[in-house]
Design brief:
Immunoglobulin-like, mainly beta, about 5% helix, single chain
Length: about 750
């Protein structure tokens, strides 16, 4: 050992006559057993030479222009990189050079792993593996793997005010790092840069992040960078892999992945080494499917997400998922497929203005992030969120969207921005606004429940509550929203610092919005707040709505800065028009059919805001609506939206009986139901009867809402028994698909009959 050390020292002494080499070895044969002790003892120009082993520590150059290296420095043997490990033990950045180190400082020949980043002044984590500020450190032949942070999971490159940072990367491997925000592999911040050595090329692949999975160049007003690599994740990376707004360039020699321009399949029982091309050969993780899939406007593809729970703790899932254009994320259903972030981050993120992506048929839980607890997007174009349940997602203290957040930062829309939220449940989430949208050129929310969302802190955000939709104060007649068949109930806003805070709904900034058949009720704000707030030049219409029971008042229209226009038609508003609090100059259009009375909700069961049989809201709506409005076929309980010839007020349509009324079954019936109900493509009719020997004649028939026979299942054409499961694919006797709407199925056995109802959706 002494001879090896002497040899290494002689080589290093040849570099400079006055430099000192400090030997670090775990076995105690060197000067130190801890790398940081060697750094602390070193002076500019010195070398800290580290012998193989795993060093569980977090090192800091502390402004010293020194070399910290493994024996790779003296031998050029690659194995020393693998066997000389600095492990951050999830206790911060593994390596920090944040005090103006120049290009005579070097980190050479280590594996850098298990770093978790350093908290900056804004409470963001920076640089899981290596955290650089105002530094020109040379990083030479290091493997930077399995680190994580908010910015720069592998490497963070940043500058202080009036500073500059430009390290050199030489022969490094940056792999499998993760960023909860930007730059899974590398993040280069404003007014910083990086030099990639063109002789000893780096390898950068399989990193993940909310934006720029491998590299993110922060900012739109900084200089481009030039990336030279041997191996990248793909040969032609898009913004998913390399997020950049300033025209940076890449020269790539090889790729790890050849993207598949077809559907991919994911299952908790899968393996990321599988092809993912079929249900029988699925990948394990959604993030890996995003890496491997290709999709475009001519050939949009779907990531099929099988039944099960996908979380960091259970399946190694890496959230947020960096959204990509022309891709559908499709689960099995709200009960079957669960995306669980373990409160480590939000679940979906779109920073690079992606287009035409869809999220459907799943449950999204335990998301937690500063901007949006579950989903955060910036100017989405053609985004669809359908048949998704959001539960227990959290916006941390001091920030404001517990489920869905969008950008208010830019007034300049590059392309048409639009989002559709349909058949969604946003329930029991915590922190500020449950949903914040805008400025978008078109927003539609349909058949959605926003209920029971509460702050987890005493918020300082006066717009907090269930839903906020906003345009931009500098542009008129550009922002349009339609909210149809939506329930916004029992949301809480505890804001006391701001007067006039809204608990249920806030519309602002020249937003044009139509609310049709919405139920807004029993939301709670502070003593000076209200259920609905409208301000800053917005134009809002309420048609067939119920606004009732919000504490302490229903509505404030604030035209102190710019006047608003609010229209009411066939709407129940507690207190009527005279109870609306009006500030400044506004126009209130109080048209025909409005009511000021108790809506008489049922108040119990799965749908407590269903209308009771004596509700004044039954048949009190109108179909004389603005031309753009399309009424859905079904209400929030899955019933036909129009029962009879006239539509009701609110989000639920009375069907001639109470929502919890159950038809009387004879004692011998055990089960007669269908599932799912409502359904789209298929449903199963389940039938079970006691006393098998007594019931030999069984027939099940399906009728439309007009009483016309659609399909018959009997002993003549189907194998029926007292324990029967019938699969109905929505076809009639001729095999033709039936239209969406209400249908009735009838069981006949030994002269007795039982009838139930089901609904087919679009």
């Amino acid at each position: 050992m002494k001879s090896i050390i002497l040899f290494a020292v002689l080589i290093l002494l040849g570099q400079t006559l006055f430099a000192t080499t400090h030997i670090v070895s775990l076995d105690g044969t060197g000067d130190f057993t801890v790398i940081q002790d060697g750094i602390d003892a070193a002076s500019n120009g010195d070398t800290v030479l580290v012998y193989p082993g795993t060093y569980y520590e977090n090192i800091n150059y502390n402004g010293k222009n020194i070399t910290v290296a493994s024996l790779y420095l003296t031998t050029q043997i690659d194995s020393f990189v693998k066997t000389t490990i600095i492990d951050g033990n999830q206790n911060g950045s593994v390596v920090k050079a944040i005090n103006g180190e120049d290009d005579t400082a070097m980190l050479c020949g280590f594996t850098i792993q298990n770093g978790s980043g350093t908290i900056d002044q804004y409470d963001y984590l920076e640089g899981g593996g290596i955290n650089l500020h105002d530094s020109f450190l040379i990083i030479n032949n290091c493997a930077i793997i399995n680190n994580s942070a908010g910015y720069g999971g592998g490497v963070f490159i940043g500058s202080s005010y009036n500073g500059y940072c430009c390290p050199t990367l030489k022969g490094c491997k940056i792999e499998s790092n993760h960023a909860f925000l930007y730059g899974g592999g590398i993040f280069i911040s404003y007014f910083s840069s990086v030099t990639f050595d063109q002789n000893e090329l780096c390898n950068i692949y399989f990193n993940t992040g909310a934006a720029g999975s491998d590299i993110c160049r922060g900012g739109s007003d900084c200089e481009p960078i030039h990336v030279y690599v041997d191996t990248f994740t793909v040969i032609e990376p898009d913004a998913f892999f390399f997020s950049d707004f300033v025209g940076s360039t890449l020269e790539i020699q090889h790729a790890k992945v050849t993207p598949q321009n077809q559907d991919l399949y994911v299952s908790p029982a899968g393996d990321n080494n599988n092809s993912g091309l079929s249900e029988n050969d699925p990948l394990k993780n959604i993030y890996m499917a995003l890496i491997k899939i290709a999709s475009d406007s001519n050939h949009p593809n779907t990531i099929h997400i099988a039944e099960g729970t996908y979380s960091p703790s259970m399946t190694g899932e890496k959230y947020p998922l960096n959204l990509r254009s022309y891709i559908t994320f499709k689960g099995v259903g709200k009960e079957e497929t669960t995306l669980d972030a373990d409160e480590l981050s939000c679940i979906f993120y779109d920073y690079d203005y992606q287009r035409n992506y869809t999220i459907r048929d799943m449950r999204v839980i335990n998301g937690k992030k500063i901007s949006g607890g579950a989903i955060n997007f910036f100017q989405p174009r053609g985004t669809v969120i359908e048949n998704v349940r959001f539960e227990n997602n959290i916006s941390p203290e001091g920030y404001g969207r517990s489920v869905i957040a969008s950008s208010y930062l830019s007034a300049f829309i590059l392309d048409s921005t639009s989002v559709l939220i349909k058949d969604v449940e946003v329930v029991n989430n915590q922190g500020g606004r449950a949903i914040a949208l805008g400025p978008f050129e078109y927003t539609r929310i349909e058949n959605t429940i926003i209920k029971g969302n509460i702050p987890n802190y005493s918020a300082d955000d006066w717009q907090a509550g269930g839903l906020i939709i906003g345009g931009h104060s500098h542009y008129e007649d550009r922002w349009y929203a339609e909210v149809v068949n939506t329930e916004i109930t029992e949301n809480v806003n505890q804001t006391t610092d701001w007067p006039n805070s809204a608990s249920a709904l806030y519309v602002m900034n020249r937003q044009n919005a139509l609310f049709v058949n919405c139920t807004i009720g029993n939301n709670t704000a502070p003593a000076s707040g209200q259920g609905v707030g409208i301000s800053r030049g917005s134009n809002v219409g309420f048609y067939n709505c119920i606004i009732y029971g919000d504490d302490p008042r229903e509505m404030l229209v604030d035209g102190s800065n710019i006047s608003n226009t609010v229209t009411f038609q066939n709407t129940l508003l507690e207190g009527g028009q005279w109870d609306i609090t009006v500030l400044g100059t506004n126009t209130l259009n109080w048209l025909d059919g409005n009511l000021d009375t108790n809506p008489l909700w049922e108040g119990i069961g799965e749908y407590p805001y269903y209308l009771s049989s004596n509700s004044p809201c039954i048949d009190a709506g109108t179909l004389d609506l603005p031309d753009s409005i399309e009424i859905p076929l079904y209400d929030l309980a899955g019933n036909p939206r129009i029962y009879g010839n006239i539509i009701d007020m609110g989000a639920y349509e009375w069907q001639g009986y109470g929502i919890d009324d159950v038809p009387h079954f004879p004692d011998e019936i055990i089960t007669f139901k269908n599932s799912p109900n409502p359904f789209k493509d298929y449903t199963k009719i389940l039938c079970s009867i006691k006393d098998v020997l007594e019931f030999s004649k069984i027939k099940i028939s399906i009728y439309n809402s007009k009483g016309q026979l659609i399909r018959t299942f009997s002993e003549d054409n189907y194998d029926l028994s007292p324990y029967t499961e019938i699969y109905w694919d929505g076809t009639d006797e001729k095999g033709k698909q039936v239209a969406p709407g209400a249908y009735f199925y009838k069981l006949v056995y030994n002269g007795n009959a039982v009838v139930r109802k089901m609904v087919r959706l679009h």
